[in-house]
Amino acid sequence: MFESKLPNLGTSIFSQMTALANQFEAINLSQGFPEFDAPELLKKQLNHYVLEGVNQYSPSSGVPRLQQQIAQLAKRKYAVEIDAAQQVTVTSGATEALFVAIQALVREGDEVIVFDPAYDSYQPAIELAGGKSVNIALHAPSYAIDWQTVAAAINSKTRAIIINTPHNPSGKTLKQHDINALKALVIEHDLYLISDEVYEHITFDKQPHLSVLRDEELFARSFVISSFGKTFHSTGWKMGYCIAPTDLCEEFRKIHQYVTFSSFTPAQHALADMLEQQGEHVDALSEFYQQKRDVLSNALQDSRFSILPSEGTYFLLLDYSDVSDLNDVEFCQWLAEQAGVAAIPLSVFYQHPSNDKVIRLCFAKNDQTLIEAAHILCQL
């Protein structure tokens, strides 16, 4: 009998809900991908490099032009000097970067603190490295971190903490007091940090993104991970990157070279052109998505759902306590099959399912799609 390394994992909820959406022709606000296309310049330059024959392996750490543009973006956004050649690694999506960072850090028996609701790739990667995920549950409506609880969870086996800001699925962002508390614990207990910042350019109401890159002492112990898919509406390209201090970056690259070796070469050149020629796209992203958040929120004002504040990402949470007594998985199945809107239940993001009656909607969609979905939800 074959023995699975991940016996408790099955098909992801994202695949399940998208399949339901397709089966019942529901409006799909479940899986987190944009309904609109990547920028024209990006597509044009990708085609250009493919036709020009730029189709062979790139350096394992990334095309140098793209590494430089990433370093310049970090400097412009966070006033930090990054050594592009020694500290920036281009990866095949942020999920690869997360996996490699975890493999670089975690040894047999190590513990890693994770905050639930959490992106579903963290725990499997920790377990595959021989470690244990120590999940600290956050709850609606605030999803605030109790740092005293975190401190109590730290012991001699604790190796690292994973944070995600802006946070998927809650839409919350870490504040300066969170960064201060995190830094104190990381330094006191000699821990490492993996900072998942894939939604770094999508924060709302003029609130800044507090990247770990802003803090020199914290960055010295950190892998900071981001995603071009989120920034340039191109999730299917699977292009991301990791910024880390030189010593950690060296370890990261040892593993990266045996996972993907290098990433899609024409796309790297196209992304470098995009960052160089249309940097304003990044700067306009928060306003672009805030408008979509507000379209959906305003259209839901007359519904029986309670709308939880979204401070970043392209997700909005709804409390459906006044709509149904079903648990969130059953409610999302009913919603897709009977009402015609596909959403994601929050409990699947927890190690121990939460009893909060909360679902996640993706608003990276055309305005008309959002208005049509909200119209259906307002009828419930």
UniProtKB/TrEMBL annotation:
Aminotransferase class I/classII large domain: residues covered: 27-374
Top-level taxon: Bacteria
> From the UniProt record, which GO molecular function terms apply?
kynurenine-oxoglutarate transaminase activity; methionine-oxo-acid transaminase activity; pyridoxal phosphate binding
Question: What Gene Ontology cellular component terms go with this record?
Answer: cytoplasm
Fetch the Gene3D superfamilies from UniProt: Aspartate Aminotransferase, domain 1, Type I PLP-dependent aspartate aminotransferase-like (Major domain)
Q: Which residues form a coiled coil?
A: none
Q: Which UniProt keywords apply?
A: Aminotransferase, Pyridoxal phosphate, Transferase
Name the InterPro entries on file.
Aminotransferase_I/II_large, Kynurenine-oxoglutarate_AT, PyrdxlP-dep_Trfase, PyrdxlP-dep_Trfase_major, PyrdxlP-dep_Trfase_small
Which cofactor is recorded for it? pyridoxal 5'-phosphate
Query: Pfam families, alphabetically?
Result: Aminotran_1_2
Q: What is the E.C. number?
A: 2.6.1.88
Which enzyme class, named as a word?
A: transferase
Family assignment from sequence similarity: Belongs to the class-I pyridoxal-phosphate-dependent aminotransferase family.
What is this protein called in UniProt?
Answer: Methionine aminotransferase
Q: Which organism is it from?
A: Pseudoalteromonas haloplanktis
